[in-house]
Amino acid sequence: IRVERHAFGGVFQAGVDVNLKDKWLVNFDVKKLWFSTDVELDTTGALGTPAGFKKIDDLDVDPWVVSIGIGKKF
Length: 74
Hints:
With 74 residues, the chain is an all-beta fold. Strands 1, 2, 3, 4 and 5 form a 5-stranded antiparallel β-sheet that branches. It has one domain (2-72). β2 and β3 form a beta hairpin. It is rod-shaped, with a radius of gyration of 22 Å. The protein has no helices and 5 strands.
């Protein structure tokens, strides 16, 4: 089984920087990703099937990515 490694998809992103004392800041960021790729089965050597990879399913990936950071401006 192999999963196609190249896919395109959409991303939604929102975030905010909060300035603190002495040029310090806190950052909060949220991203939502969407993409789909193919799952294929290697049929080489199976009886009665053509050699090569055959698509057997779609893999939908749609995670939320949340991050918090701290930084200092120079």
